[in-house]
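Field guide to reading this record: the first block holds the primary sequence, the second block holds the structure written as discrete tokens, and the final block holds curator observations. Each block starts with its own label. This record concerns Vacuolar protein sorting-associated protein 8, catalogued under organism Galemys pyrenaicus.

BLOCK 1 — SEQUENCE
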Amino acid sequence: MYDKLSENSVAKGVFLECLEPYILSDKLVGITPQVMKDLIVHFQDKKLMENVEALIVHMDITSLDIQQVVLMCWENRLYDAMIYVYNRGMNEFISPMEKLFRVIAPPLNAGKTLTDEQVIMGNKLLVYISCCLAGRAYPIGDIPEDLVPLVKNQVFEFLIRLHSAEASPEEEIYPYVRTLLHFDTREFLNVLALTFEDFKNDKQAVEYQQRIVDILLKVMVENSDFTPSQVGCLFTFLARQLAKPDNTLFVNRTLFDQVLEFLCSPDDDSRHSERQQVLLELLQAGGIVQFEENRLIRMAEKAEFYQICEFMYEREHQYDKIIDCYLRDPLREEEVFNYIHNILSIPGHSAEEKQSVWQKAMDHIEELVSLKPCKAAELVATHFSGEIETVIKKLQNQVLLFKFLRSLLDPREGIHINQESLQISPCITEQFIELLCQFNPNQVIETLQVLECYRLEETIQITQKYQLHEVTAYLLEKKGDIHGAFLIMLKILQSKLQEITHQDENTKEGPSLKDVEDAMVETIALCQRNSHNLNQQQREALWFPLLEAMMGPQKLSSSAVPNLHAEALKSLTMQVLNSMASFIALPSILQRILQVSGAGGGEDPVYGKGKLGEIQGLILGMLDTFNYEQTLLETTTSLLNQDLHWSLCNLRASVTRGLNPKQDYCSICLQQYKRRQEMTDEIIVFSCGHLYHSFCLQSKECTIEIEGQTRWTCYKCSSSNKAGKLSESSSEIKKGRITPS
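BLOCK 2 — STRUCTURE
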């Protein structure tokens, strides 16, 4: 087919592309050299180099010009294909590594950053070495069994060469190991670890293991151009190997001491967390057996490696010392609360261990509160509920004590504490209220509304001590002393009114009109909340002084210099009048206004005699309100009357509507009422449609007495109603007499 199709270039291209899926699935293995060559050239011409690489690794390339294919692969960065051609075409496993090393080694040795392409080459090199040492072909398949030992030896010998083939005079020893360590220490060591796993029983491999470990130590320990993480990776790798039960490696223990010195005694403070993490991984991998523990703890404390200290103390069950590790570690200090809670609550720790942790937490309680007051409060409530007073005594700093008590007592802080189980004495709550008065007086009322178990008398004394008058008024109202609370609120309002009436345009400080309005609204709310429970005289004792207080400052508006806020004060006074109208009779309010204004002969007039016009606005406003409410009442009454009329009409229509029986026979005796011959018998029809003879219904005792009148009940409906409700016909019963006709 190919010979005929190759005469037409289009047909030839289509044919070659049709071969691709069969080659990739290994269904087409025997292809002539000419077709293989044309296939590669065709995809190369179409710039489909990835397809070329995929095809090459599935072909038998022994019949191709290998040097030409290798050159093409290298120029087009087809590294997988290049390695495949070397391995399968020439049984050559070292040359591909040399080519890749020549590219990535110079920039790594110079300390430069690798390009993306160089990183890809380095990663492929690591995978290739791993495959060779494991007896697998790269990128797919397996190395022939007879070649596996040879390939392993060649690769090991290559890696541990003292110098490269074209070494310059300044090249350092073991260039290949050094390059791979610089490229990716962790992954190179992982490759070696996997290799060590595969060759446990291979004597030659065991020798190579020891040799390569010695080279690794020589390269990394005797050079200062490796980071702490890289050195740590090596010793973590060694610790894991040494910890294995069938270990045959030997590592000088003094090297571990050198690494400990290197990690714990750096020349500068850089990479602190990195050094600590490296040492922790080393210890967790089994390296702990390589160190003298007391020396390790001393060096870790000196280096401020608190996670290392925690690791060591946990091995010794010295849990109380771990609390110090958390508190000294700025990165993990907030985790101390969870740690203490877990030790004290999770089973598995002895009573002595729990007691030591409990005592340590008590000793550091001030530090814990300053760190996170809400977490400390939750901890105290859970595990130290019987020692709250002791904790309070330990907190000498008043701000700290305030934060702690607020977290403990204020349910809005969001911590999960069962207040009932705490059984906090009232004196502690009152101590918190006093601190609240000092540090956050604006939130005292809001907090009192959610607090529990405080004594009113003692709390009132505290708020009076700090002159928090609104809070005192709130507590007096709660106590039941409404008049006392009102007098305090009235005094606050009067002082603000007095200050605002003496302001001029240039006054910048002092209360604003908004402050006056707020004080007035709070006072009105106090009066409204409690007026329902007072008699008329007590109501007047609240509302009239408030009205007089609002009208008092307005006398200044008649002086030569009018008050800046005269109109606003009149509006506020109307607000008071509208509010009190619900509780005080209108004539009483008018009489009081006239007395206050002096028009009615009262003493100490606000507006002076003969100046009734000054309060004309107030009176007209009240009359407008009265007219509006009267109109509203009349309209509402009219609407209610219309509704009532409509309901009565419907009821009357339903009562007078004729009833249509469902059947023409009695529902009890089942005889037609027309054929019954008793002249005196009555027919009873219910609104439900059932029909009975009065004699039959009476025999079933379906009558009830209501207000001296006998009322019938439907037998069927009442007997089927399991709830016992009777289906009555009320006034809808129709009675008729049977005539002989």
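BLOCK 3 — OBSERVATIONS
The CA atoms of residues 634 and 640 lie 10 Å apart.
DSSP finds 36 helices and five strands in the chain.
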